Structure formats: structure tokens, C-alpha cells
Amino acid sequence: MSLHSPRFFALAMLPLLGGCQTVFFHSMNAGGAPIAAITQTYAQASRLKLDVFRPSAASSATPVALFFYGGSWRSGERADYAFVGRALAAKGVLTIVPDYRKFPQGRFPLFERDAAAAARWTINHAAEFGGDPHRVFLVGHSAGAHIAALLASDAQYLAAQHLQPRDFAGAIGIAGPYDFLPLTDPKLIEVFGPEKDWPASQPVRFVDGDEPPFLLLQGTGDRVVKPRNAVAMAHALRAVHESVTLRQYPGIGHFRILAGLRYPVLAPTLVDVVRFIEDTPPAVN
Questions:
Q1: From CA 267, how far away is CA 259, in angstroms rounded?
Q2: Smallest Cα–Cα separation from 258: which of 146, 141, 172, 171?
Q3: Chain centroid to CA 146: how far?
Q4: Is the Cβ–Cβ distance between 160 and 116 less than 8 Å?
Q5: Are the CB atoms for 68 and 115 separated by under 8 Å?
Q6: pTM for this one?
Q7: Which residues 6+ apart lie within 8 Å of 177 measured at CB?
Q8: Which of 56, 58, 104, 157 sits 20 to 30 Å CA-CA off 206?
């Protein structure tokens, strides 16, 4: 690996992420597949937009990843995650990266409702970009993994869009919080509101047997989201005989697992995500 290569730079920057996220995302988005984003509005009232990354050989059978980014439900924007869209599109996956309302613009469950609206748009419009609406996967990293998992487990959000969890081929959570009560961080309490509302935010509490197949990816060296979250979610899904694959990466941290979507040398994230998408059959509904 060259000392001047973007992936060496990305690896070197990982320990500094606390104060260098701008540099990190610049590194992640440097180079890569030359696939341009197609920007669309998915929620007219709130003027929320999403970016579509289309594979060069998209066909009616092309799988679709609807990717929700992280940021503690307080920060982030879709442009920072263009590297995810380009990396997956280069592997033949039509990828959609939406923005959603975050604190202080909105508290839970507003971002979950935005995510459901993005899911509705994706089902409605996937075919226009060469995607198969029966092969849509809900995907996310960190807070985005929580959003994807709650969509796939608590049916009320999709129901408001006349959808249900099994309208999706699968759900993929990357370093996600699924079972994180009690809340002690004041910033999280701001996001999720009074204590009486906290249980409604926990995906593990809604697993009841109507979920699509799940892939859970987790680094054992994660110091941001405790690895027990993925273990608890996998246990809940297995308890109701749902299909779930849990992959734990020894020593991999919270941001390195994300960087693996751009640079597979850092973590096998991209390989495992693409394999799961390719091997999972279309939604049955």
C-alpha cells in the first residue's frame, strides 16, 4: 500500500476521527468509481432530497440498497456518503442515499417517518432507474442502522406509507444501536425525549416474526456503539425464527467498519454486504 494512496490516508486518519471527520469524508470520497449522483426530491412538504447511484449495467433485476447514514441522529448529510453509493453501484447495486430530519430540526420519531417516506419513494421509483422493487434492502450505519432496523421491525412507520417490512428483501445493519436503554447521555435524551417514550425507539422490542432477513455487521473493537447491540438483535430475531446473519469483525472499530465500504482492505464490510444482497431472494409480498 503506497504511503500516498487514499486508502493509506484513510487508515491513518481513523484514530483521529474525533476532530477530523471532514478530512475523513474527503478521503472516503476521493477517487473511486466515476458514478455521478442523480438527485431527486422524495418529500415535497419538507423538501427532503436523496441521491441515486445507478450501476452502469442496471437492468430490471438490479438489486437496490436504501442507505441511511449515521451521525447520532444529529448530524450528517447525503453528500458525505457518496462513496457508499459509488462503491455499491460499482458492484451492481442501485444505491439510494436520502437525507432525513435530525435534531434539533426534529426529534424521534420524525426521522423514522422520513425514512419510511424514502422507502416508499424507493419502491415507487426503483424501476425508473433500472432497479427491482422486489429486491430493495434497508441498509444503514450507526444511527442509520437503527433507523433501518426499526423500519424493518416496528411496522407502524411503513404502514403509514402502505408498506410492510416484508415488502423489502432484507435489512442490513452496520454497527447499529438496537438495544441501548437506559439513556444517560443528555444529547441522546434530547433526541429521544422523555423516558416514557424511550421503549418505542428500541428495535429489539418490536421483533415479532414479520421481519425480512437481516444481516448484522459489528466490529468487536467498537467504542461508540457497544457490540452487545448486534448480539441482542440477532438473539431477538432468532427467538422468533427469523433469518439473521451476524458477522463480528475482531478488533474493528465504529468508523473503520464504515470505511470498509470504500476500502475493503480495512474491513470486509463491502464484501459481506454485496454477498448478502446477491444471495437473498426477492421479497415475497
A1: 7
A2: 141
A3: 8
A4: yes
A5: yes
A6: 0.93
A7: 142, 143, 145, 146, 225, 226, 229
A8: 104
